[in-house]
């Protein structure tokens, strides 16, 4: 029904805009809640049990995060007497808010919901979840003044490691993209306290790369590696170019995805965190492995098939 | 100052006689330790065994079995860790991509029968019987028994007469649930030898989080009696959704990435003996089968 779709998409846009424009914690929380509530019907539109399962898991985690966020902001208001977003200085609310926002976006160790939720959704809704739903929490994260740098470094490093390690044996594309999201978010959080502008840059490049990846998968109507291996029959030109996107996600120079990683490593080293930088770079290798495996399956090999007739791309489309 | 002498406690035998003495008064209750089920009069479905023991009395501590279990679970855990280095599901990615057929259940020895659970309507008090054994030369499994559609006399059951064989949930280390990932396949293939009866194949996917525990995807298996084996290939797009045996309106195709169990049910209303022999159950990828779902989805709010 197009009217309902319009209302939900408008709600999504409004929620993010409200969070962007707010300087009061309550208004920011409201924007986040609106985002959650608006995407719930979009997730269950196919009435499949797995979609319902994904929606339930998503709702429970996001509601928990929102409740913790509200609690932390109320605690901050009680302790410091003001509701300004940029003035969270007391360590307890600051830590709670960081953890709540980490649960919202799916940073490790609060990441367990993300692969299952993305797996239960169709590719379009998964795209919205991976990209648009991360904007609002990031707007709040960028405005935090973190007094606990250890927490952020731990969150970041754990995320890169778990994102790389967890994605290694997945054959479902949506789960691979979930783990890639976890890894990229880890990179973003690593440099947050030193240079929030690099975080924003990483977020935007991640959006562009993930957007294109999801659209490639949508075009091929593929949700696992074996169907992706058939994409050379459907769109050979796109199949030839998709490794560029995938390796950019993996952070290989000279592709764009390398730029945020380079800047982050440079910033970390300048701040004297060279071992952290080394560990993050090594864990990027893990995720690079599965991106490389995806490009191998898609472009570099021709999977067994029995297409004795013409390949689909040669047939005239109606 | 010495501790006062502890008064001599009555012996255990004396205590039990006191207990018996108290119970002798209402003489209908048997002379055993009182059970909640007996005292509170829980309804017992005919066919369920009588509850005579408390839950803690059923525990059987056995040191050697415990050691074996520890060994088994840690071996499985180690295998899980090492499989991760090889590839998805313990096979290299090339093998996963090239895989076109996979035999999931093959009945070649007595340990293969332990993966299956056989039940019939005896659990609700009916009179059907079902047994599972290995066929000739230990090469097949043989499900046989008798169906009886006499309903149990408990006042609430109207129909009866079914038997079923269901695979057990695959378990990882420490009894965690594992699922069959059949997402690279689209057809179920069986080699059976039946006696002409129509069976139903039930595929059950993971429903823990969606709270739809009895959602089962079913399709028919028409066996032709006779000495010849029958190769049956059923695409997964033909499976329709049922809940507790009733076909649902809102149909959707079965998602194959988290399949829990597969089962065979016989419920035709014909009393008498039955037999089903299964050689193997496998899944295959049929490239020529491009149908996504065989049934139309229920249209809510149709335009009139």
Automatic annotation (TrEMBL), chain A:
One of its GO terms (biological process) is mitochondrial electron transport, NADH to ubiquinone. Pfam families: NADH_dehy_S2_C (PF06444), Proton_antipo_M (PF00361). GO terms for molecular function: NADH dehydrogenase (ubiquinone) activity. It catalyses: a ubiquinone + NADH + 5 H(+)(in) = a ubiquinol + NAD(+) + 4 H(+)(out). It is a multi-pass membrane protein. Residues 288-318 form the NADH dehydrogenase subunit 2 C-terminal domain. The chain crosses the membrane at residues 59-79, 91-114, 150-169, 176-194, 200-220, 232-252, 272-292. InterPro entries: Complex_I_Subunit_2, NADH_DH_su2_C, NADH_UbQ_OxRdtase_chain2, ND/Mrp_TM. Keywords: Electron transport, Membrane, Mitochondrion, Mitochondrion inner membrane, NAD, Respiratory chain, Translocase, Transmembrane, Transmembrane helix, Transport, Ubiquinone. It is found in: Mitochondrion inner membrane. Its EC number is 7.1.1.2. Residues 22-285 form the NADH:quinone oxidoreductase/Mrp antiporter transmembrane domain. One of its GO terms (cellular component) is mitochondrial inner membrane. Belongs to the complex I subunit 2 family. Core subunit of the mitochondrial membrane respiratory chain NADH dehydrogenase (Complex I) which catalyzes electron transfer from NADH through the respiratory chain, using ubiquinone as an electron acceptor. Essential for the catalytic activity and assembly of complex I. This is NADH-ubiquinone oxidoreductase chain 2. It comes from Haplochromis burtoni (Burton's mouthbrooder). The gene is ND2.
From TrEMBL, chain B:
One of its GO terms (molecular function) is unfolded protein binding. Keywords: Chaperone, Mitochondrion. The keyword Kinase does not apply. GO terms for cellular component: mitochondrion. Its main location: mitochondrion. As part of the MCIA complex, involved in the assembly of the mitochondrial complex I. It is found in: Mitochondrion. Part of the mitochondrial complex I assembly/MCIA complex that comprises at least the core subunits TMEM126B, NDUFAF1, ECSIT and ACAD9 and complement subunits such as COA1 and TMEM186. Interacts with ECSIT. Interacts with ACAD9. At early stages of complex I assembly, it is found in intermediate subcomplexes that contain different subunits including NDUFB6, NDUFA6, NDUFA9, NDUFS3, NDUFS7, ND1, ND2 and ND3. Interacts with TMEM70 and TMEM242. PANTHER family: COMPLEX I INTERMEDIATE-ASSOCIATED PROTEIN 30, COMPLEX I INTERMEDIATE-ASSOCIATED PROTEIN 30, MITOCHONDRIAL. This is Complex I intermediate-associated protein 30, mitochondrial. Belongs to the CIA30 family. It comes from the Eukaryota. It comes from Haplochromis burtoni (Burton's mouthbrooder). Residues 105-278 form the NADH:ubiquinone oxidoreductase intermediate-associated protein domain. One of its GO terms (biological process) is mitochondrial respiratory chain complex I assembly. Pfam families: CIA30.
